[in-house]
Specification:
mainly alpha
Length: 121
């Protein structure tokens, strides 16, 4: 039954039985975190100040609400837009605070003489 729909379903059932119900979720996560170009599994901050999972949460919710099926299309309410904008704003504030904390810590180390200041020529 190799290469058939039925065979694929049997293989999927075997994988879930052997390795647990989250088998496909886990291999997808491993593949996403192995990448080096960002994406939704990226742990670093992007240009928008969000980490990958935060970005996936926001845009996944938007994608789930906005359909491309003509008249069946849903619109985001003002409240939903505000919620998304608020999440972006919070993430940016969080990123700026992290940067300020890092710079403050480095400045205190410089003042204590623990770290030498370097000048780029």
């Amino acid at each position: 039954m190799a290469g058939t729909i039925g065979g694929g379903r049997k293989a999927a059932a075997t994988n879930r039985a052997k390795y647990g119900p989250d088998f496909y979720r886990n291999i997808g996560r491993r593949g996403g975190t192995n990448g080096h170009d960002g994406g939704f599994a990226a742990k670093g901050l992007g240009k928008d100040g969000l980490t990958g999972p935060e970005r996936a949460k926001i845009y996944g919710s938007v994608g789930g609400k906005v359909s491309k099926r003509g008249r069946a299309r849903l619109k985001l309410t003002d409240e939903e837009r505000k919620k998304i904008d608020g999440a972006r704003r919070e993430a940016k504030i969080k990123a700026v605070k992290r940067g300020i904390d890092m710079l403050t810590e480095r400045l205190s180390r410089l003042q204590d003489g623990e770290e030498r200041a370097t000048v780029n020529a």
